[in-house]
Amino acid sequence: MFDIEVPAANGATSLAQIGRALGAAGVGLEGGGMWSGVAHYLVADPTTATDALLAAGLGPVITRDVLVAQLDADVPGALGRMMQSLAEAGIALHGQYSDHDNRKVLLVDDVESARTALGGAV
User: Crossing angle for the helix pair 12-24 and 46-55, nearest 10 degrees?
Assistant: First the structure.
C-alpha cells in the first residue's frame, strides 16, 4: 500500500475535487484524512492515483511506501508503546493515520527498519 499526499488548501472543496478525480479513475481509498491543508490517502495503485490527480490539475502529488501495522486500539497505552518502539529504534515518523481496518498507517523514512522495530508488522 502507498500513501498519496496532495494539497487540500480549500478544505471540503479540495477533498471533493480529489475524491471525484480518484473515483473517476477507479481508485479506492483504504484510509486517510486531511489536516493542515494537506490530504493523505492510502491507495493500492499510486501511479493511477497520481496520474488522475495531475490530470485534474491537482498537485503536486507525493507518493510514499508506508508501513501498515496492527494496533490493539482497545488496549490502553497501545499507541504509546508502538511509538516508543519506533522512537527507540531511531525511526523518523512523519505522520500516522488509520486505515479502514483500524490498523495504523505509518509514514516513515525507513519502512523495513520500522517493520523490524515493531516485530514484523504487516
Answer: 120
